[in-house]
Specification:
Shape: elongated
Order of helices and strands: EHEEHEEHEEHEHEHHHHE
Largest sheet: 6 strands, mixed
CATH superfamily of the largest domain: Peptidoglycan recognition protein-like
Strand order of the largest sheet: 1-5-4-6-2-8
Structural class: alpha/beta
CATH class of the largest domain: Alpha Beta
């Protein structure tokens, strides 16, 4: 789970009431306009999430103690911490419903961005499973299940009614080819894979390794802490998992990059490949 914590958002600990368990999780949408620009602007997703908290805290009539939702989900696959796990939500309509389920918000609206992409669905699923690991039951519903509302909107509710499945392949929006797009030299990458791991203190053998490691981190195949610029044991193992995801087996998934698998990774993660 790619989590942006309250601390990273600059927020103090939530003042929402503690609630150790709930029957399940309700899925919500914003109900307003979500700018299309967010597809290429992760910072915009974070800013929108912060705006929700400001609006909720300013709502004297409702008396919110914090942002209403336990977690949010953005278009780039990130989970945004709201009240967090173990806190009663304020989003489901009334106190009884707030005790009944926790709540997660997808940054989907009535206008603008209305159809969730795979990154957002992955993040929603991450948030739901995290809550299930921390006291939520297996029930997954939409806000309209039990409350008179159109939330979470047609497209997102359709996903919920299918059981909120995790997409089998995540194809995020990547930059178009052009200036600034990283280029990875396959021959240099293979040389690095054969030479690494280096002895302690050895300089990075090829800077392109970092580009590939970042892509493997985004694919959730390599831990961020292990992405050190060296195509060592952990990176080869992660790349082998990528090769298996591409359909390779046995010796064909040995962790040594090939042109086809690396090109496919580059198309998904925004870099070009030269032989």
């Amino acid at each position: 789970m790619k989590l942006i914590t309250r601390g990273a958002l600059g927020w103090p600990a939530s003042a929402a009431p503690a609630q150790a368990t709930a029957g399940g999780v309700k899925v919500h949408y914003t109900g307003g306009d979500v700018p299309v620009s967010l597809l290429k602007n992760h910072a915009g997703c974070v800013a929108l999430w912060k705006d929700f908290r400001k609006a909720h805290l300013a709502n004297v009539a409702e008396g919110y103690s914090d942002i209403a939702y336990n977690y949010g989900a953005c278009w780039h696959g990130y989970v945004l911490e709201g009240r967090g796990a173990g806190r009663r939500t304020g989003a489901n309509g009334n106190q009884a419903l707030n005790r009944y389920d926790y709540a997660v918000l997808g940054l989907v609206g009535k206008t603008g961005l209305t159809e969730p992409n795979d990154g957002l669905l992955h993040a929603l699923r991450d948030a739901i499973e995290h809550l299930q690991e921390h006291g939520a039951g297996n029930r997954i519903g939409g806000h309209q299940d039990g409350y008179a509302t159109l939330c979470p909107g047609g497209p997102l509710y359709s996903w919920v009614r299918k059981g909120a499945p995790r997409p089998t392949v995540w194809t995020p929006v990547v930059p178009k080819p052009g200036a600034g797009r990283p280029v990875v030299d396959l021959s240099k990458l293979i040389s690095a894979a054969l030479a690494d791991p280096p002895r302690s203190g050895t300089p990075v053998s090829y800077e392109g390794v970092r580009v590939v490691e970042d892509a493997l981190v985004e694919e959730r195949l390599l831990a961020r802490a292990l992405a050190d610029g060296h195509f060592g044991t952990a990176t080869r193992a992660a790349y082998g998992l990528w090769q298996m995801r591409c359909g390779y087996k046995g010796e064909d998934a040995d962790g040594l990059p090939g042109l086809a698998s690396l090109t496919k990774l580059g198309k998904r993660r925004g870099f070009s490949v030269t032989p």
